[in-house]
Design goal:
The protein has about 200 residues and is of the alpha+beta class. It folds into two domains: about 40 residues; about 160 residues, Beta Barrel (Porin). About 20% of the residues lie in helices and about 50% in strands. The chain has one helix and ten strands, in the order H-E-E-E-E-E-E-E-E-E-E. It has an eight-stranded antiparallel beta barrel. A hairpin with a 5-residue loop joins strand 2 and strand 3. The chain is elongated.
């Protein structure tokens, strides 16, 4: 009987050792994968400021400030922009609304989640969303007033390796939640493409 119980105990110890080895292997693999993900989620710069040129309804030129939240993949982009004065020709046959000079100022903020493209260091694609506030000035009351919009966003961001320059392209299709009276006919604007060039601060 004794050899039988000895054999049984040896099997149990071997099984426990095998389980411990598997646990160690799993922990090692998990730590390795975590280190890779952490390394890939780190950004190549922390903050940058520059200019964004867009095709948007809200602005054509805007100051762009982008800052990453800690060392993670999330960033905030803030824009303060203007759409220079332009003349609205009005509807055909309705001269009362024609030749109206319109100027628009805007502020927008968006959250962007970045994913590095490992094949090209410094290049990241991003997705996110944000909001825009506008104030329109015109000699026609129906065009003057405050507007508010929401937009999803996506694009690509590239930081040059040897110079403090970051460039990005993005798209922001905008849903108007509130707008001056004469803008109610156009509550969705697509597309809104933008190109940004920014000086990286750190």
């Amino acid at each position: 009987m004794a050899p039988f119980f000895k054999q049984k105990g040896s099997r149990r110890r071997a099984k426990n050792l095998k389980k411990q080895e598997m646990k160690k292997t799993l922990v090692s693999v998990s730590l390795f994968l975590l280190s890779i993900l952490t390394a890939h989620s780190q950004t190549t710069y922390h903050s940058a400021i520059g200019l964004r040129i867009g095709t948007g309804y809200d602005d054509l030129f805007s100051v762009s400030y982008k800052v990453f939240l800690s060392d993670g993949p999330g960033a905030l982009e803030l824009n303060l922009g203007v759409k220079p004065p332009y003349t609205y020709t009005g509807y055909p046959g309705n001269p009362s609304y024609s030749n109206s000079d319109i100027t628009m100022t805007s502020f927008s903020a968006s959250y962007q989640y970045h994913v590095p493209i490992t094949a090209l260091p410094g290049l990241q694609w991003f997705v996110g969303g944000g909001f825009s506030l506008t104030n329109t000035f015109s000699d026609i009351d129906g065009y003057s007033g405050v507007g508010f919009g929401l937009f999803p966003t996506g694009g690509a961001d590239y930081k040059f390796g040897k110079i403090p320059l970051d460039v990005s392209v993005d798209i922001r299709p905008t849903f108007r939640v509130a707008s001056p009276t004469y803008y109610d006919y156009d509550n969705f604007y697509f597309p809104d493409f933008g190109f940004s060039a920014r000086y990286t601060i750190n």
